[in-house]
Amino acid sequence: MIDVGLLSPVSVGHDAGVSDAAVLDALVTAEVALTRAYARVGAAPKSAVAEVASIFGWQDEQSGCRGHGVALGELVAASVAGGNPVIPLVGALRSRVSAGAAVWIHRGATSQDILDTALVLVARDAAAEVARSLAATSRSLAHLARAHRDEVAAARTLTQHAVPTTVGARVAGWLRGVDRARARLDDARAALPVQLGGAAGTAAAFAEHLGSPEAATELIDAYAAELGLAAPDAPWHTERWPITELGDALVQAIDAVGKLATDVATLSRTEIGEVAEGAAGGSSAMPQKQNPAASVLIRSAALRAPQLGATLHLAAALAADERPDGAWHAEWPTLRDLLRLALGAAANAARLAGGLRVDAAAVAGNLATTGGLLVSERLSIALTPLIGAARVRDLVAAAARGDDLGSLLRSLPELEGTDVATLLDPAAYTGLAGTFVDRSVAASPSAPDLAEDSP
What we know:
- By secondary structure, the protein is mainly alpha-helical.
- The protein is 61% helix and 4% strand.
- The chain contains 19 helices and four strands.
- It has helices spanning 20-40, 46-55, 72-82, 86-94, 99-102, 111-147, 167-190, 204-210, 213-227, 241-267, 293-317, 327-355, 360-367, 376-387, 389-400, 405-410, 420-423, 433-443, 447-453; strands at residues 152-157, 160-166, 275-276, 357-358.
- The strands form two sheets. A two-stranded antiparallel ribbon has the order 1-2.
- Strand 1 (152-157) and strand 2 form a beta hairpin.
């Protein structure tokens, strides 16, 4: 065991589905499903297929093969000579069944058919788990946005106080990002196809074995049905859109939770203190610290994921001829690493969002830090027609130097009768923040869950 997560704590406890053992299960599943597809189109004897399915632990289209007895360590060692694990796998599988059943294992297929299909199976199940974590994150954020809909806070641009916003509006932004990423991931997952093209993507061997091109087309459809995957219009040995589209969706998902984590890490700083994680981490040297550990882990994934997505695109662009010479091989660990990060980041995001606490006193204290300067934009809009832009700038500059902005405004004869307190009230200058919260929550797939939770 080289990597069990010691240096990747974000994924610990969440990445068993993309382990070498899981990939091996998927490889065996892909091979057994092909024999079953031959039976489905009436080519392979049912007895031979039943033997293969029984010996290698076929469960169903969702679970595939379990307890197949293929030794992972031996397969790994034998994979080096041919450059991929399918070559020795085929020999291992055929050696354990009768001669009549062995001829249906890997019949007409190429290594890329099996390995691509296996990685798609692993990716399908991992992406489903990521989507479940994103859904849990969405539910928590929707609750939080609704609960803090009208709690006024200081918006920050380029690190500085800018104008008023609300806690709810900020959370609704996180919610929209998570929901959009989840939708894109669901689409990419639903589109994942099997791979079955034979030696150079023409399916000629299948047509020869079955007697016609039409029968070969039926076999591809049957193979997809056996695995619960999409049937492709054509093999995609060197047209790698299924991998790049999934990779992009995974990166977007990690981006979305990365934004959440970045804001939480900032807002939980000691000098800001507006939010806190429900289960903060400690320090080995400073016992007073309550570190935003989940946010830190998520950010570590968000910093790594884009480069993995870029590698998938680079491999797709350099997928030469009808079988890539290295570009395909570069995809395998890259996709697995990206899935691993997405699994960990999304799971930690669900935990983070579910326990996130808002400190109303800290929010209010920070809101008051700059006095009326937070509504300088409003003052410029409201007062320029009355006293001119230059005088407005002078008033704001004086307030920035320490003068009381309210007193300055009340001293102006042009503002006699004006409700200065309302003019300076941040709560009166949040624009459509509440509307955006309502729309974001209503549009979220979590909305039905929220309705069920309402009294």
